[in-house]
Amino acid sequence: MSEYDDELDCSGLNCPMPILKTKMKIDKMDSGQVLKVIATDPGVCNDMPAWASKVGHEIVNESEEGKKFLFFVRKK
Questions:
Q1: CATH code of the domain covering residue 68
Q2: Is residue 21 part of a domain?
């Protein structure tokens, strides 16, 4: 996915920090905007979709590039 409004690099951070930083960043964005999140902690693969579902945001796309996990989260 190439279209997003902002990017957050959480490389090297362990859970729950990627989720907390994502929440802080997405709270400042407008509804409908997409945040690209980069993380290296494998725990984010379960935590990010669970968090997004719980709060109502949409995971538009997720992928893995090498040892990095990419999530594109659309703010509700």
A1: 3.30.110.40
A2: yes
Contacts of 13 (CB under 8 A, 6+ apart): 21, 39, 40, 41
What's the pLDDT tens digit per position in 15-65? 899 999 999 999 999 999 999 999 999 999 999 999 999 999 999 999 999
Q: Which domain holds residue 37?
A: 6-74
Residue whose structure tokens are 């993380």: 39
Catalytic, out of 13, 15, 38, 59: 15
Q: Which residues are within 8 A (CB) of 49 and not within 5 positions of it... i.e. 6 or more apart?
A: 59, 62
Overall number of domains in the chain? 1
H/E stretch holding 33 reads none
The reply to whether 1 falls in a domain is no
Structure tokens at 66: 């090498």
45 is catalytic: no
